[in-house]
Amino acid sequence: MKRLLITASGEVQRVGYRDRVTKIARKHNITGIVRNCPGYDVEIIAEGNEADLDRFISQIRIHEDPISVESIKIETGTYEGKWKYFEIQRGSPDEELGERLDAALTYLVRIDSNSRRSVEIGEQMLVKQDQMLDKQDQMLDKQDQMLNKQDQMLDKQDQMLDKQDQMLAKQDQMLAKQDQMLDKQDQMLANQNYQISLQKITNQEIQEMRSDLKDSLNTKYQFIEQQLHEIQTILKNAGMMS
């Protein structure tokens, strides 16, 4: 068991610090007292086992408005077991009443300040909410405009698709006509090939006939020349030709 003599400095008087210390001490089975010192510090005499005292010291370094412990001075004393509980050693009734009134006034001032601050924050939040709502309205307007444009674009796309369908139908018709024209061209080519083959046959037959005619004329011409030659010979022999 150990005894510690602790001096806490900072905003520790007339702010409810002694009550907080008392609650912490009772929570950790610490016995002793807490009291205001002349000036602005608070003195604590704490007795208990080492582990409980360590937890107690770590938790009395309070920095929660309006309490602000700036420093703690610790001295080790001789354990006496003098106190059964942990309690506040109060001053005169007037001093305690003044401290409580000061603490209450401090709390009220801080509450009022916090309330005003809350109102200001609330008003700022309302302004920001209004701005956000305005922006949301603007965004909704833009979304409506975008949706209208999208609808217009979809209408145009539908019109384009209709035109494409019409063009495809016309292309199909043109392809069908081209197929018909190709079929007719094939027929014409077949007829031309047939006519060419007939012309070839006719030309060949004409050439053969001309060749036969030429041979026949050559034979007749030779025969006529022979007859003329014989006639000339007879006439010369008869003295009728020189």
Question: Would you mind describing this structure in some detail?
Answer:
The protein is an alpha+beta fold and about 240 residues long. It is about 70% helix and about 15% strand. It contains 3 helices and 6 strands; from the N terminus they run E-H-E-E-H-E-E-E-H. It has helices at about 15-25, 50-60, 95-235, and strands at about 1-10, 30-35, 40-50, 65, 65-75, 85-90. It is rod-shaped, with a radius of gyration of 66 Å. It starts with a strand and ends in a 5-residue tail after the last helix. The mean pLDDT is about 90.
Provide key terms for this protein:
242 residues; alpha+beta; 3 helices; 69% helix; rod-shaped
What is the gist of this entry?
By secondary structure, the protein is α+β, with helices and mostly antiparallel strands.
- Globally, the shape reads rod-shaped
What's the total count of β strands? 6
Radius of gyration: 66 Å
| Percent of residues in beta strands | 15-25%
Compute the number of helices: 3
Main β-sheet description: 6 strands, mixed
Structural class: alpha+beta
Given as residue ranges, the uncertain stretches (5+ residues, pLDDT < 50) are none
Percent range of helical residues: 55-70%
Strand order of the largest sheet: 4-5-1-3-2-6
In quaternary terms, these chains amount to single chain
Distance between the termini: 189 Å
User: Mean pLDDT across all residues, rounded?
Assistant: 88
Reading the helices and strands in chain order gives EHEEHEEEH
Topology:
Layout: E1 2-11, H1 17-27, E2 31-36, E3 42-48, H2 50-59, E4 63-64, E5 67-77, E6 86-88, H3 93-237
Parallel strand pairs: 2-6
Antiparallel strand pairs: 1-3, 1-5, 2-3, 4-5
